[in-house]
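Weekend entry, working from home. Most of the wet-lab plans are on hold until the incubator is repaired, so I used the time to fold the two sequences that have been sitting in the queue since the last round of cloning. Logging both here for the record. First:
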Amino acid sequence: EPGQVAGEYLRRREQGIPPKRVTDAPVKEVVHRDGVDLLATLPVPTYHEKDGGPYVTCGVVVARDPASGQRSMGLHRLQVKGKTRTGIHLTNPPIAAFFREAEARGQPLEIAVALGADPIVLLASIMRSAIGDKLEVAGALRGEPIELVPGETVSLEVPAGAEAILEGRILPHVREEEGPFGEVSQYYFSDVSHVVEITAITHRQQPVIQALHPTAREVSVLAGIPAEFEILRLLRAQGFAVEAVRISGGTSYPHAVFSIRQTKTGQARQALFVLLSSMGFIKHAVAVDEDVDLDDPRDVEWALATRVQADEDLVVLTGLVGSSVDPSAEARGVTAKVGVDATKPFRERERFERIGVPAEVRERARAVAARYLDRR
């Protein structure tokens, strides 16, 4: 059941199972330390007709904070620019924060990029978590330690079960043009990004490299499921009786809808304020009552059509941090957001009773339909 999955996820994200160090691993079957040539070694696709070049889109970057020694990971795209040179788009914590600390010291930041990693490692890499080391979170989600093996040219341990590992360092005080790249927004995106120098590549004998197409449903599933659970956690922690959350997959996940059980006037509206101001990637959000099926877009649209008055039920917030790949946002990433309160007016709930048929009638109809289908 979705509710049980959400509950288990939220329980495990607060825990951690430390990784297990091993000395040998499938990802070490082939080691390239001299004459490294990324494109000659691994398949890296170009996704769109006007992309600036081949991109690694599903690379889990592992690094350590130079100040605290805290290890963590994140998902970052890399544009291949040469045999040993890539761009890297750093906008999200924790790796971006780690690099800022290293650059302030005038030092490069060592990284290891895991390709074809365990799906649990991939999932944990994009999560928000109370635990600093997301590899520990991955272990908690899996229920057993993630195996790590020492790097060849970096002082990092890398996922032993990956298909391939790129080792390298992000260079301090170096920026280069990156892109264009067709992003999840289905627009081309260019930036001035950081630069990585690749120092080694290791891989299995016949590596299978995952390519995450930006506009595929896979992206919505990967990013949407943990985002739904994180929004659920956020709103419940603020005292709102939120039943469920769904991210709209067709919009590259800036749209959210949640169902809420209100006990007083204004709770849905307040929850919309909290969500829109706390989650930068959510641009539009809808609140509905618990009688609306979030998995049925027609049901959500019915609530929008019959429970919303625009002059009373819209929440508009301006000047907030938004998605870095939203072309409609200002150059510095500032955006406006809209929330829609599509819940029944609290003091008039009885007037909004849905039509329906008795439960026993529905069950008899299902039984008749089942017998008919069996005969076919």
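Second, folded right after the first finished:
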Amino acid sequence: MKKTKINFIEAAMKYREVTIVFTLLLMAFGLYAVFTMPRSEDPEITVRKGLVVAAYPGADELQVEQQLTEKIEQYLFSFEEVKKDETISDTKAGQVVITVELNENVKDTDRFWATLQNGLNTTFRMNYTLPNGIVGPIVNSNFGDVVAQMITVSAPGRSYAE
């Protein structure tokens, strides 16, 4: 029994009808995809990260960590929507910035961030003893807006190419 090697180019030349039908099908599927794909000038981007920022003026790093960061983290981790392993705290003298990432199952991220800010303003302040002079905590989750800027350099006597 002899094995024959199929040469696709020879087969395409021999059976032109199959090649033409296959090409027309590819073009039809391509046109269908172009006309049915969703389009948006400013696409909706779901960002699952947000910042919780608080300031404690005059406090050193250890004081901020003990009196502010640990309490905010404890409150944040009470929410099942928060990814605990992806949440990062950056404590410096006088301030704390906590990067919070949400789980994939959170559908309405704007609603969660609003709930979190409201909870930090009410429940958090009532249930946790905070030192005087703390500014915040404030939730910043507005990273989805896309901004483009075009910068050009020009000079008198120079062409655009130069």
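Plan for Monday: verify the second prediction. The first strand starts at residue 49 and ends at 55.
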